[in-house]
Structure formats: C-alpha cells, structure tokens
Amino acid sequence: MPPLSLAPTPLFSPHASSPAITWRTALSTFKAVDDRVRGGSSTSQTNLTASGQLLFSGFLDTTTLGGAGFASQQYGQSLPITLDKAGWQGLEVKVCSPPPSQKGGKEGNDQPGGGKGPVTSYVLNLYTTMPVKRPDGRNESSTVYEYNFNVSTSSAEVSAFHPAWSDFEPTYRGRPQPSAPKLDPEEIKMWSIMARSDFGSQSGPFELVVDSISAVKKGDSKKASLMTKRGISEDEEGNEWLRPARLNGAKGFALYAFSTVLLVAWSVWALVPEAWLKAVGVDWYPSR
C-alpha cells in the first residue's frame, strides 16, 4: 500500500464529502458586500469554474471614495464543522494565481480603477458575531479577524497558504484592534473573501480562483515533518510503517564510487598473480 500524506480536513472544496461542503452547494449562500454600501463603485460576484472551484471576481474602484475601495463576497453561515484551539491549529487556503485578466494591469495613472497597480492582494475574513441590522438596513460594523495573502505569481498553479489562528488579526472597519480578544475558532459564525484598495495601491478587474479551504489539526505539521525525517509513512488505517530511505544525488554518487573502488580492489586481490603483485611492490595482502 503506497504511503499517504497527512492531509488537512476539507471544509470547502470542488468535490467534498460530508461534513465538508462543495462550492456548488455553497454558491447560493454568498452575497456581495462591496463599498457600494458606503457610496462606492466596486463590485464583486462568485461563480464556479469548469472544475467546480470558486471564482471570486469583480472590479475594485478607488476613484469614487478618494482612494479607498473594497469588494467582498460573504458566506453567511458557520463552518461545516466546529473547530477549537485545542484540536486545530489553523486553516489551509488553496488558491490559483491571477489569470490573464490581471496580467494586463499597468502601474501609474493608466491602471483601471485609479490605483497604482493590478489586484494581487486578498483578505480572508472570519467573523465571530452575526451582523446586527441598523435602522437604515445596513449592518453594524463589528470586529473582524483578517488574514492577508498575496497572489503575485503569474503561474496558474495552485498556491497554498497556512494561516494559524494567531495570524488572523482583529480589526474594526479595517483598522487594527490590538486590545480585542484573540480569535476563538469555536466562535466563527461566517467568513468572507475580500479585495481592497490598500489606500490606492491596487485596483481594476480581478479574478481569484479558490480551490479549497481546509482545517489543519494541531500537531499534524510537526508529526508529518518528524515522520518524514524518520522515513515513516502512514497507511489508510493510520498504521505507521518504515519506508526505504531515499538518497539524494551526492550521497548516491558517493556510495557508487565507494562500491566501485571496493570492486576493483577485490578483483585485483582475487585475480592478479602473486608474482605480479610483488613486482609492483605489493608485499602484503590478505590471504586468499
């Protein structure tokens, strides 16, 4: 049986089994929370890719609000499983790099939306309270726990980010709140994915493919590293077994050279007549 990696527990993915949720099932739960609620012009939407991944896209504008701007899609339900600090150390977020629509952005005044460059920075927001409606129908602002990540490569390969719970910083209306309590993952009520201007540093059309969001058990990373060093793998039942050690190129060549020298020495000892050995000054060698 081939070795299996210690994989995180899926929460959202293209092809998920219970208790995880597929993006297709989750799609109808997302809603736009853009800067239009404050009079801005940014827009966002969520769709599915042909592979069933979540496509977060839209247009980030900084001109209407004088350099500010944000576009986000909010998932208005809790995570499919309850996570606690005792058993879980954080999340794994897998996203695809910006597609061609972002690569055409130019720095300077020609950038669509008024920013200095194309959108490459995103925010994963976790909410520990449900929104409270104001008399005007808008939601009251509350503490949000943010994790920022940058998808700056032009490659289409999936990039994985591994934020620990401590990496989610408490903010209020985008401003750090160092006095706020640390994130308690058991209290997560909903989450969102956001693109924001970062004070005019980015704007324009954006597209981010979210492949999956998973939970990482506490100790999995350390255990995986230790097992790799010791040459141990796990089967499907969690049984550990020793796998053959793999040699790198330098060690393999050294072993090959050493074996060759031993073979040549043995051949000389076994096959060359004694008279020839004495003629070249070899007076002692092991008895044949």
TrEMBL record:
<keyword id="KW-1133">Transmembrane helix</keyword>
<dbReference type="GO" id="GO:0016020">
    <property type="term" value="C:membrane"/>
</dbReference>
<feature type="domain" description="NADH:ubiquinone oxidoreductase intermediate-associated protein 30">
    <location>
        <begin position="26"/>
        <end position="95"/>
    </location>
</feature>
<dbReference type="Pfam" id="PF08547">
    <property type="entry name" value="CIA30"/>
</dbReference>
<dbReference type="GO" id="GO:0010257">
    <property type="term" value="P:NADH dehydrogenase complex assembly"/>
</dbReference>
<dbReference type="GO" id="GO:0051082">
    <property type="term" value="F:unfolded protein binding"/>
</dbReference>
<keyword id="KW-0472">Membrane</keyword>
<feature type="domain" description="NADH:ubiquinone oxidoreductase intermediate-associated protein 30">
    <location>
        <begin position="117"/>
        <end position="210"/>
    </location>
</feature>
<keyword id="KW-0812">Transmembrane</keyword>
<feature type="domain" description="PIG-P">
    <location>
        <begin position="251"/>
        <end position="288"/>
    </location>
</feature>
<dbReference type="Pfam" id="PF08510">
    <property type="entry name" value="PIG-P"/>
</dbReference>
<dbReference type="InterPro" id="IPR039131">
    <property type="entry name" value="NDUFAF1"/>
</dbReference>
<comment type="similarity">
    <text>Belongs to the CIA30 family.</text>
</comment>
<dbReference type="InterPro" id="IPR013717">
    <property type="entry name" value="PIG-P"/>
</dbReference>
<dbReference type="InterPro" id="IPR008979">
    <property type="entry name" value="Galactose-bd-like_sf"/>
</dbReference>
<feature type="region of interest" description="Disordered">
    <location>
        <begin position="95"/>
        <end position="119"/>
    </location>
</feature>
<protein>
    <submittedName>
        <fullName>CIA30-domain-containing protein</fullName>
    </submittedName>
</protein>
<dbReference type="InterPro" id="IPR013857">
    <property type="entry name" value="NADH-UbQ_OxRdtase-assoc_prot30"/>
</dbReference>
